[in-house]
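Researcher: We're teaching a course module on how sequence relates to structure. For the next exercise, students receive a sequence and then see the predicted structure as C-alpha cells, so they can try to spot secondary structure elements on their own. Here is the exercise chain.
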Amino acid sequence: MGNDRLFKALCSSTRIKIMQILTKHEMHLSGLARKINISVPVISRHIKILEEAGLVNRRIIGNVHLVNAKIRGLEKILEQFVEESSVEINKYDSLLDALNQLPGIEVKKFGDQQYIHSVDGEKGNYIYEVDGKLPNTPVDKYKPKKDVTLNLKKIASINKKKVNIKVNNYKD
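Model: And here is the predicted structure for the students to work with:
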C-alpha cells in the first residue's frame, strides 16, 4: 500500500468520521450513510477509497454490504514510520545487551527482572517481540541463537468508552 493512498484516504474529515464509527462496530452501508447524513452512492465512494488504502473490510451477504475498520491495516500503516536500527551482539549476549547499545532505551529493574521502561524519552510499559512472536523470557534473559528482528511495542492506553458524569448539586 502506497503512502499516497493512505494520505488521500485520511485527508477527508468525512472518511475520518467513517473510520471513527467503523472502529466501534460493523455497519451496513446505508446505515452508515444515514448516520453521517450523506447518500449511499457518496458513502460507497468514500468506502472504496478507504478499502484501497487497506483501512476497511467489506463483507457482502447477498446484496447487503457490511463494512468495518481493518485494525491490522491501521497498525501496518504505522509500521512504515518506525525507526529501524541494527546492532551486533556475541552469541552469549542477551537482547538487553543489544538494547544497551542503542541510545534512548531505558531499562529498569523490578525485583530480579529488567523491563523496558522508556524508548526515546517516551516512558511507559513496553513489550517485545522476537521475529513477530512474544517470548516467555524476560528481555535480560533471552539469548538469541541466530539473527533476529526485535520489535519494541508500547502498551498504549486506548479509550474504549468515554463516560461524561454530571454531578447533581441539589441538596437532598
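Model: If you want an answer key for the exercise: The mean pLDDT is 86. The first strand starts at residue 27 and ends at 28.
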